[in-house]
Amino acid sequence: MMRRGAYATASRTQGKRNFTVESDMFFLTAQSSPETVLFEWGRIHTNADWFLPGLVFAGCVWLVWRLYRRDTMEVGRFWKFFLPLLRTATLFLILLIWLQPQWRTERQVRQNSRVTVMVDTSLSMELPDTDDASKQRSEAVAELLGTTPLVENLRAKHDVTFLAVDSETRRLGEAVRLLGKDEKEKGEIPTFQANGTQSRLADGVREWIQANATTPLSGVILLSDGANNAGGEVASVVEAAKNAGIPVFTVGFGSTQAVENLRIYELEAPTRVQAGDPFPLSVLVQGHGLVPGRPTTVKVTLSLKNGDGLAPLETGEAVLATDGKVEPIRFEIPPQKPGKYTYVLRIPTGEKERLTDDNVREVEVEVVDKKLRVLVLAGGPTREYQFLLTTLFRDKTMETDVLLQSARPGISQEATRILTAFPESREELFAYDTIIAVDPDWKKLTESQVTMLDTWLARQGGGLLLIAGPVYMGETVGSWLEDPRFAPVRAMYPVEFPRRFSTSRQSTYAAESVWPLTFTREGMEADFLRLADSGAESLAAWERFPGVYGYFPTRKAKSGATVLACFSNPQTKDGEEFPILLASQFYGSGRVLYVGTGEFWRLRAAKPEYFTRLYTQFVRYVSQGRMTQQSNRGRLLLTRDTYFPGDAIEVRAMLLDAQMQPLVTPEVPAQVLLSDGKIQTVPLHADPQQPGTYVGSFFARTRGTVRLTLPIPDSEEKLERRLEVVLSDLERENPQRDTAFLNTLAAGSGGRAFASWNAPELQKLPELLRDRTRTVTLSQMADPMYQRDFLRNLMLAIVGLLSLEWLLRRILKLA
Description:
8-stranded mixed sheet, extended, about 800 residues, 23 helices, alpha/beta
């Protein structure tokens, strides 16, 4: 009992995750004999090694005595004997140093036989263990370890180590409480939480076996459903186990039959929308364990939360013909009044379905009555500009200011305000949600104005609509496209332009006839390019549109940009690339949409509403970043809106003070309302590399909705975000037990596979594990300080003997 208690105590203090033989050697040592100190020569390994140094020493001694016999002919008999004896002693001490005297200690150590219990802690272990869903697989593992005599019987002959294996391998018990009151007697049986987003079972078992191949590891017991969905294959584990002579015993959890499961795979919805605007809710549904050859019709009910109840709104259908394939269902939500709306989508539970927590998803949409502030910056009064300005001015949801760079003072325009210069201050510029640049003369902006524009777009989530034109973009001399001062402006465009522009190239800005747009797949699916409510009607409307003459040449799309439509005239190709007419990209937290032609006004010939709808949707699209922004003084950013249990959720806040300058304070607190109703305070610390940026993190522990709130310092405003914690897709795709993996692993390594954790024969497993307790001799050098002092004393003795010899020779007047 003493040896097992000592090992348990040591293992609780072990915090390493990368295991090696050396790191575990201390824990293998249970009992040892007293140390024995041994002396040895570093240069002598066999008796034959004495011959050469002995011969050299004897020759030197003979030479010393011969020389002293001649030198001491005139001194007394005592000095004839004493002086060569001093030199002989010196040679003897030199010989001792050359022989390298060493002391080492030896002790006999008993290393206990070991067994490693590896527990699968991936998310699939939270699924039902059996068809009747009476308990989770992780609960079955806890019951096996905590209530059956298995662990106690294993500890009778072996030291037991518990490991967790999912996306990584680590010791269990390093950050969890222990079961049982008397830990010294019962040992440690750690609790655990199944929250790994991957199952790297093969890698985990193989790496542990290879690291402990030279230790007395009797075997590995793997408690798992066999869902090895990442990393290596089972063959690599079998080979490693055979080479090390370590058998693997597997205990299966979960149903062996295909589990029918219908689920909502993904849900997309806008976070905020403008009052009076319709918006879509798109859902992807998926089925597993379906009967081959028998399509399954899935109905998704859309409801609106109303207090504690639900008000059904609409039902959509999709046909699942292939196991694992996702199918889309789209709901069109009519315009709503301002407020927060929670929509719930639900799939009815199937007759044989046991996994029901993924049948329901909900999303919150905030409808705001906020007028978009738009600045139209134009180099000249083109037709596109004129029709666009009229459209925006008549839209009651927008306030439009205009800066026509070629206008004379006192000109009249359809706008809320007419500017004579680009905004000079942050307060002025940051008040705009969208800037529409119609072939502007960027050279009229100062360096500080360009910097403010970059900050507004990247950090304030502004929306930038860039419309190409032949005047300022087509300048052959001194164009801003070639001026290095305007590299930040060029970086905002999602396309790259030809490096040189010449007079001969100018003629290619217009084709001899109209050419239609060629839409990419992303363009066909983009809602903001629809000219009608339904996809079919929109496609028909675009087909009726003959096309455009004008375009602007492009070289290619930038990395990360999305091409939506191209000019279809083959004569305008630059190599293999058609000129890009529509492309978008994210720029920091803002959105940019590039329009490579100024002739969408021709849509009015087909139907005037098409032009109005298209540009309204353009403005709504690029301003989405500002729509989700709850304050001009800050943004609350997450890497995504959906996380898995156990994920670290990084929170990033960009905050400004009342003067619209980066906030200066070391820390700001955020409040997190977890899915279980608990409130957690997460401190966000200032990023020294990015002024005004604050970073913090917390962990997603359980599935559900999490709300994040950050009060803005010195303000009554606050920032809010909502996120969902869902189960990993990898762990849901094949919820049944992988019996083939478990059986192959056990049989190939010389172990045994147990089909059920509560089978009576499982309690006989300890009898199958050989007791590999052994006694080894551990040798190590003695105290190096003692050896150093010994050699130092020898050197002092040599110096003393030589000094004495020299002094006596001087007194005796010997040469």
